[in-house]
Model the fold of this input.
Amino acid sequence: MTDRIGEGTHEFEPHHDAVGDRLNWLRAGVLGANDGLISTAGIVIGVAAATGEPSAILTAGIAGLTAGAVSMALGEYVSVSTQRDTEIALIAKEKAELKDMPDDEFAELVGIYRNKGLSEETAQQVAVELTAHDPLQAHLDAELGIDEQNLTSPMAAALSSAVSFALGAAIPILASLVSVQRIATIVIAVLIGLALTGYVSARLGDADARRATARVVVGGLIAMAVTYAVGKLLGTAGIA
Done:
């Protein structure tokens, strides 16, 4: 027997919201790599279909990687900055309410736990103990699901997004350096990468791995087929 809950047989089992946050970041990273794979593969295959010039293919691939990584980073930075600003505003609002009307806020906290299924007496006791420990965090957690000490980081989100996109984009670029059966090599490399990202994202979300993997692989095949057809058409027409 142990004296505290969480020790003993479950000592090393994580019980914290940060675990869910890490999984969300990992899932976002996997999806970023998936975007890098498909978009850059489309570029290099389209250019390869239009012209067999290795330098043109490599240049297009690197340009696609750079533009995509920067775009992903900026988009993620703006999005997460907006989310963080909203969280900060909500925290300030909650602080003001706790200062100006503590009794109403306490009653609201009791009501939240009562609505979750606790009896009036138990809800009162939970609210009392949580308020005694940290009234602000008690309300932020119960009402808004916010942890004041663990706010989202725009820079971390931007960096994670850019790096994951670049890693995915590197696969078709490296495959394009193969001189023999270049397009086939790119397709095979990209499909392997897509299968891996599809499987990992499915496992993170406890979804059917076979269905998720098949979905992303088929989508990638369609994207590469379309860009190959466009590149071939432009090359044949003499535009490229």
User: Anything to note?
Assistant: The CA atoms of residues 109 and 139 lie 7 Å apart. The mean pLDDT is 82. DSSP finds eight helices and no strands in the chain. Residues 54-100 form the longest helix (47 residues).
